[in-house]
Structure formats: structure tokens, C-alpha cells
Amino acid sequence: xxxxxxxxxxxxxxxxxxxxxxxxxxxxxxxxxxxxxxxxxxxxxxxxxxxxxxxxxxxxxxxxxxxxxxxxxxxxxxxxxxxxxxxxxxxxxxxxxxxxxxxxxxxxxxxxxxxxxxxxxxxxxxxxxxxxxxxxxxxxxxxxxxxxxxxxxxxxxxxxxxxxxxxxxxxxxxxxxxxxxxxxxxxxxxxxxxxxxxxxxxxxxxxxxxxxxxxxxxxxxxxxxxxxxxxxxxxxxxxxxxxxxxxxxxxxxxxxxxxxxxxxxxxxxxxxxxxxxxxxxxxxxxxxxxxxxxxxxxxxxxxxxxxxxxxxxxxxxxxxxxxxxxxxxxxxxxxxxxxxxxxxxxxxxxxxxxxxxxxxxxxxxxxxxxxxxxxxxxxxxxxxxxxxxxxxxxxxxxxxxxxx
Length: 404
Description:
The strands form 3 sheets. A 6-stranded mixed β-sheet has the order 1-2-6-4-5-3, with helices on both faces. A two-stranded antiparallel sheet has the order 7-8. A hairpin with an 8-residue loop joins β1 and β2 (53-62). The chain is built from 18 helices and 10 strands. Residues 1-53 and 284-296 have low confidence and may be disordered. α6 (159-171) crosses α8, α10 packs parallel to α12 (254-273) and α12 (254-273) packs across α17. By secondary structure, the protein is an alpha+beta fold.
């Protein structure tokens, strides 16, 4: 390969790879950035047969000889976006090369990076494509990591696709019998490879705890990804019931829904410690009314002494809350007053106008925190009022009812 071709290949490959932080001087080889691995000079491949050498070259190859990688992390491609890209490629040509690996056994090429461009090229019926061709590169985890790194963060890559890709990198490679062929990366290593934080990678992996219905809703943008993470912590039965409430619009906002999911998860754990499990149900509210539980929702399992304490403390708290009306009248007066009149009345008073404003600001900050706490309390009460504690012996009957 000529020096010019080598330079072109190096430049093209570096373009394909996402921007990474510079590795430390004594960093282990396994943590080298993907861009460095793709564009490095020829090296002997540790996982290849003796004499097989990794190298790359920039070539023009027939589009018909390029195959999709079956392990590609992306499963969904926006059709309108592909059509727009195909139109652009038909008019202007291919502006950025794809990356493929050569398969000697079939004499064909498998995509490593650039499937979206390859799909658009097929739509535009381009007979040839520019590609950085990798020789001596197998189907190992680093090849898959390159594909993940190129696609992560793209607008049309779903959160579930990212989650599956990250999980595959963490799990490593196994043969058909389940035996480990290649070890997996740690979450921190995956984060470095794809240019994300470790928390981001773990949050995405956690989404795989979602039931199939919730995953589908997430893929279709019917369930926000932030809310989905909270939903994934619930049991499968409650995930399905929660999703039904979300789709019906039972929550005023996504924040209310998150608070409800958090309260539901807490109630699940509490019941689990008592040897029971907690299931959302539409009939529970009516059942509690029949048992006289409207006054104290969720306290059916409390001893009499605790119930008496709650009644006494409730009376004290409600009495204090009722006094908020006086503060509201004062704030309404200040809001409706003429600024010039306020300046005349309050200038020179202890603390000055600035001091009074800081007191109002303090009330505002406390009010914001109180609102957030009341939202959580409201959701806790709603969870307890709309749920059913089931004895373990009755679990089979509940599952049968849910499946019906």
C-alpha cells in the first residue's frame, strides 16, 4: 500500500470514529481509543491465525458486495432521513467513506461503520462506494465496539438499542454452548469507548429490566426515557398496570408519574419484606371504601396505637397548614401594590426593601421544596389507595387474572 493510500485510510478512519479523550501515557492497550485502533499501522492480530496481519486501505468497492453486520447495534432507521440522504448522495455523491472488513472466505465485505450511508446508497442505486477496508479483522468485541461507538448518541438510535449494545459489550463474547470466548468490558471501559459517562451506560443497561410492553412504548417514544428508568424498577405486573395508567393520561405530568413510580417501588419493597407482594388494581379503591379506609388510606395494616398517633398529628399539621392563608393574603397584597408606593412605605424600615425581598425569596425556596415533597406524598397516598397487597399463596390467582 502506498504512503498516500495509507494517509487517506488513516484520515478516513479517524473521521468515522467518535471524538475521545487522549489516553494516559501508560494506559493498557485494551483501553486504547477506537479511532487509534482503526487507524493504527499494521499489527499482528492476537486473535487471528499466525501470519494474518491487520491493515487498512481506502478503496472503491461494489455496493452489491457489501453486507450488513448481523451484530449491528442499530435496528431502527428513520425512513424519511434515509430518503433525504439518498437524494443528497445521488446529487453530490458520497462525501464520507464507510468502514468495512474484508471476509477472505466469501470475498465480500461486512459493514463496520456507516450502515446508514450504505442503506442510502442502495436506495440511490449507487453502483460503488468509497470504503476504508480493514484486513485481518474478525468479528471480535473490538469490531462490535467500533460499531457501537459510531452509533451511540445518534438521534435515530433508540435507548433500547443502546442498552442492548452496552450489555453485549459488558457480557463479552460466548460460543453456542455459553462458554466465554472473549471477556466483557467493565461499565467504566464501555463509557470510555463510547464517550459517555459510566452513569449513562449503567442507566441504559437498567432499561433492559423493562417488560416487553414498556420497551415497545419506549421505542415508539410513547414513554419518556427518564420515566422508563423508574418504571424498570417495578415488578413486571406493576409495569404493565402503570403503563396503562400512563397511556390513559392519569398523571398530570411526567414528574407526577415519576413520583408515583418511585412510591410504588418503595411500597413493593415494603410488602416484600413482609412476605407479600403489591399489585396495582382498579378495584382496590372501592374495596378500601367498603372497609372504612378513606380517612386513613394505606393504614389498614397499622396497629391501633399508631392509627391514634396519625390522627392526632394530622390535626396539628392541618391546623398549621390552614394558617398559610394568611401568608397568601400578604403575598397577594405585595404583588398587587404599586412599586413606587412600596418604595415609599418600606424604604428605611429594618432590613430595608432588600431585606423584605430576601424573606420572600426564602419563602419561595421553601415553598418549592414543600411542593416537591407534597407531590411525593400525594403519589404515596395514591399508590396505597389504588393497590392491593396479595398473600404469596394467592400469587397464582393474581397472575391468572392479569393474563386474562
